[in-house]
Design a protein that fits this description.
single chain; mainly alpha; 7 helices
């Protein structure tokens, strides 16, 4: 009986193309993951009185940083002054919302005229300060519930890297 082993030194891995192939596959996976998470967060974000064009949803964005570098970073965030409060909520006994911040919300959600909204604002601000409110956890829940999809995106990237290195 005789065992024979042969090693081939052909292919992209031996041609020095492995880093380029891996980088491209990981960048593509990061873009897919960021776009997926951005959509999931927006889907879980409460619809404010300004709707999708001017409310919190319109400030949620995804970005891939470090393209072409050794570390690729994907970020999904918001650019809203009240986004963190909506995400995490407000604990009871904390500061009141800023004066004037709830006028439009009161007018639209309660269907009252501006004068009535001005009178109601103090009472609502005081109640929020005393009782607080739960957060929507749209970022946290998007990550938790989308974890298996994110894992699949990057697992597939690993398989693609392996396949391309063996072409």
């Amino acid at each position: 009986m005789e065992l024979k082993v042969s090693i081939s030194t052909k292919g992209k891995i031996f041609e020095g193309k492995a880093p380029e192939i891996a980088q491209k596959a990981l960048e593509d996976a990061m873009y897919e993951a960021v776009m997926f998470l951005e959509g999931e967060v927006k889907m879980r974000t409460p619809m404010g009185v300004f709707g999708t064009s001017g409310g919190l949803i319109s400030t949620i964005h995804g970005e891939v940083m470090g393209k072409g570098m050794s570390a690729i970073k994907g970020i999904v965030g918001h650019q809203s002054i009240y986004g963190d409060v909506i995400e995490k909520g407000r604990r009871a006994g904390k500061t009141w919302p800023p004066q004037g911040a709830l006028f439009r919300w009161i007018e639209v959600k309660m269907g009252v005229p501006e004068e009535t909204a001005k009178r109601l604002e103090f009472v609502i601000r005081r109640k929020i300060g005393k009782k607080g409110f739960p957060g929507a956890a749209m970022f946290e829940n998007a990550l938790k519930q989308g974890w298996s999809k994110l894992k699949k995106i990057f697992d597939d990237a690993g398989f693609n890297i392996t396949r391309k290195l063996n072409e």
